[in-house]
Design a protein that fits this description.
The chain contains 6 helices and 14 strands. By secondary structure, it is α+β, with helices and mostly antiparallel strands. The strands form 2 sheets. It has an 8-stranded antiparallel β-sheet with strand order 9-10-12-11-13-8-7-14. Strands 1, 2, 3, 4, 5 and 6 form a 6-stranded antiparallel β-sheet that branches. A hairpin with a 4-residue loop joins strand 3 and strand 4. It is elongated and about 75 Å long.
């Protein structure tokens, strides 16, 4: 009778739940765990050892994808089939391609109830990586739910859900001409201030409305006698209608006009850009970047071509402002004057305490 009972189980006439061990096959089916039902006990900051651990893990993942090797070990074994399929499908898209690790970061880490100390750590992970081919480079970002699983012999971070991913951003190297010296016949801007003269190139082909507005307002004398009313050392010097006069929208277009964000222009040290109060609120406010050394920890977070990243490291600037403000020009002579203006003592509103440097006049001339 016992033999017959065992035979019935193995032939499936008596059905056991799929999440229990299978005595017939001699192996085991992993029990599915509902990670979404877990309860947090507390959150904490990721530390450098957490970041080092996850960096090594995802550098390995990037390498295995490029080599088209098995990546099942990076997926939690007890996730639902739906989640496992979703994660696998995403990763499979990059198999055999030139995958390069860029960045990982845990914005959230926490522990959960009802798990032992080897299996109770969770995190939300931001993962950035580049994929190269012969013509272009794309940078991808994915957000994963992660679980650190294992035992006293060792633990590994594993993905249990793909929360979000983008479709990739083009970060192929671009031609950088913004920092070139002006050519013969090129019209440049000469800004005379109380502190000295600043000479700037303008980019009418890439920011036509902004350059036209700048030139025409300047020729009408709009900026004459106006101060650099906001100065922040190692950031920007800012001018235009910053005095609460209500002239913020004054332009040759009878009010605010649209942004002209160009992917070939950047907030390098010395860039002339438009200040605004949000999208398409450009009038006459402007700023000149004054920052010799960038915060390199920001660069992996920002999607930029590799040659742009290198140029920022070389000349300085504010890469975090790219894509937000219109760049219309670049200082090519007189950065010492910009630095002098930026060095003024200011109050808590970043306004110079006394005798702010003023613009005497703005003129335009052709380079011989």
């Amino acid at each position: 009778m016992k033999k017959m009972y065992s035979k019935l189980i193995c032939t499936g006439l008596l059905v056991a739940t799929v999440t229990t061990l299978s005595a017939c096959s001699g192996g085991s089916a992993q029990k599915t765990h509902d990670y979404s039902a877990e309860v947090e006990t507390y959150q904490f900051l990721s530390r450098h050892w957490d970041e080092s651990e996850i960096k090594a893990r995802f550098e390995d993942l990037s390498s295995k994808l490029a080599k088209k090797e098995d990546v099942k070990d990076f997926i939690a074994p007890d996730v639902s089939s739906e989640n496992s399929e979703k994660i696998s499908k995403f990763l499979k898209e990059f198999e055999g391609k030139k995958v390069e690790y860029v960045y990982t970061k845990f914005p959230v880490m926490y522990r959960v109830k009802d798990a032992n100390e080897y299996n109770d750590m969770r995190g939300i992970l931001e993962f950035k990586f580049k994929v190269k081919d012969d013509k272009e480079v794309k940078e991808y970002t994915a957000m994963f739910n992660m679980a650190r699983l294992g035992d006293a012999k060792g633990m590994k971070w594993k993905i249990y859900n793909l929360m979000w991913n983008d479709k990739g951003i083009d970060v192929t190297d671009v031609k950088i001409s913004q920092l070139d010296k002006p050519k013969a016949g090129e019209e440049v801007c000469v800004m005379t201030t109380d502190a000295g003269v600043i000479k700037l190139r303008l980019f009418p082909d890439k920011a036509p409305k902004a350059v036209k507005n700048w030139i025409e307002l300047s020729k009408k004398g709009f900026y004459n006698g106006t101060p650099f009313a906001r100065v922040i050392k190692d950031f920007v010097i800012q001018g235009g209608a910053l005095d609460g006069s209500g002239n913020e929208s004054k332009s040759i277009y009878n009010g605010f006009y649209e942004d002209e964000i160009n992917k070939d222009l950047f907030n390098f040290n010395g860039a002339l850009c438009l200040g605004n109060n949000g999208p398409h609120t450009n009038g006459n406010q402007f700023y000149i970047v004054q920052n010799k050394k960038i915060d390199e920890t920001q660069q992996p977070i920002i999607s930029q071509p590799a040659n742009v990243e290198a140029k920022y490291k070389e000349v300085g600037g504010l890469p975090e402002l790219d894509g937000r403000y219109t760049v219309l020009g670049q200082v090519y002579e007189g950065m010492d004057v910009v630095e002098k203006i930026a060095s003024q003592k200011t109050d808590k509103e970043d306004a110079p305490l006394s005798n702010p440097v003023k613009i005497t006049k703005i003129e335009f001339e052709k380079v011989k």
